[in-house]
Amino acid sequence: MATFIASGGRVWRKFVKTFPLGSNLSLKRSPTSALANGRLSSTSSENVLVSKDEKSGIATVRMNNPPVNSLNTALLLSLRSCFEELEKDKSCRALILTSNKPKVFCAGLDILELYQKSPDYVGQFWEKVQDMWLSLYGSRLVTMAAINGHSPAGGCLLSLACDYRIMAEGNFVIGLNETQLDLVAPFWLRQMMVDAIGYRQAEMALMVGALYPSNKALQLGLVDKLVPIEDVQTVAEEEVKNWLKIPDQARAITKMASRKPLLDELRKRKQEDIQTFRDETTRESVQLSIQQYLDKLKAKK
Ligand SMILES: CCCCCCCCCCCCC/C=C/C(=O)SCCNC(=O)CCNC(=O)[C@H](O)C(C)(C)COP(=O)(O)OP(=O)(O)OC[C@H]1O[C@@H](n2cnc3c(N)ncnc32)[C@H](O)[C@@H]1OP(=O)(O)O
């Protein structure tokens, strides 16, 4: 089900757990910012909020899954559905992915989805991760990650799947810390890291499960631009507008030419990838590591 709420002079669409989604997105334009000024009233089911500026064709997708936008089943389904709907919308040309809760872009996979679950459950969960990634990484749209906070693991996966990454300056981290949880990033995630920062740096980063502060991430090329947190959205909109000066078709064909091999490889090896995930995450030693990691997160307080 999808609904609309009018708020702050703008119309927002709420993507909630149940589907299919309805008709075209329609938004009033804010006088001061192209996209960013809406005030949102939210309920627990509003896990993705989408606004689209009809004139420019730029949509902003805000993850809204408190407290830390961890990727649980519901959020993965909402994100995928939202990406697919925007993809089908002929008037949509670009997508900005951000968090409705500044300071945390996305905490990665919801660790509770991997803890004490049956092999079938985690297998189905992993397929939702794969499908969400296929829809974002394979999108014809200009995709821009407006990383307004921490972006570990699955948060980094989302960012890497976009065409360009703008991150908030300050004490925020990004990276693939999977090995710290005794997990191994799958081939398609490792490959995106290699493509972004080069083989040697990616190899080291992946082995030690490095989480980088934003300035180091910029230096490595893991993100493309750093700006003050309050400017992330505005700069993302400006950057998207630059990208939209390039004719859509040539840009999208070029993007697909470079991404098709990895997309095809995952499509071909999807079941094998699911099987590996099932086997690995349900292993006793991995479950123990996950439990210890969860305890560590709780003990932080
Ligand atoms: C060849 C062989 C191949 C084998 C392959 C097999 C295995 C394949 C595995 C593949 C892995 C795929 C890739 C992705 C993996 C992941 O994403 S795993 C998740 C990793 N995430 C993290 O490590 C981040 C953990 N969280 C944090 O570091 C912090 O929360 C934060 C994001 C920096 C935010 O900090 P802060 O604002 O201070 O909030 P907190 O107080 O820490 O958290 C608030 C509550 O949220 C809970 N929480 C945090 N993160 C998660 C999470 N990811 N999942 C579930 N819950 C989370 C946290 O515990 C707090 O809970 P309460 O105490 O109950 O309030």
Automatic annotation (TrEMBL):
UniProt similarity note: Belongs to the enoyl-CoA hydratase/isomerase family.
Compartment list: Mitochondrion matrix
Role according to the record: Key enzyme of fatty acid beta-oxidation. Able to isomerize both 3-cis (3Z) and 3-trans (3E) double bonds into the 2-trans (2E) form in a range of enoyl-CoA species, with a preference for (3Z)-enoyl-CoAs over (3E)-enoyl-CoAs. The catalytic efficiency of this enzyme is not affected by the fatty acyl chain length.
Name of the encoding gene: LOC118428788
Assigned keywords, A-Z: Acetylation, Fatty acid metabolism, Isomerase, Lipid metabolism, Mitochondrion, Transit peptide
Biological processes per GO annotation: fatty acid beta-oxidation
Annotated pathway: Lipid metabolism; fatty acid beta-oxidation
SUPFAM superfamilies, per database record: ClpP/crotonase
Catalytic reaction annotation: (3Z)-dodecenoyl-CoA = (2E)-dodecenoyl-CoA; (2E)-tetradecenoyl-CoA = (3Z)-tetradecenoyl-CoA; (3Z)-decenoyl-CoA = (2E)-decenoyl-CoA; (3Z)-hexenoyl-CoA = (2E)-hexenoyl-CoA
Molecular-function annotations in GO: delta(3)-delta(2)-enoyl-CoA isomerase activity
Classification lineage: Eukaryota, Metazoa, Chordata, Cephalochordata, Leptocardii
GO (cellular component) term, any one: mitochondrial matrix
Organism: Branchiostoma floridae (Florida lancelet)
Assembly description: Homotrimer.
The name this protein goes by in its record: Enoyl-CoA delta isomerase 1, mitochondrial
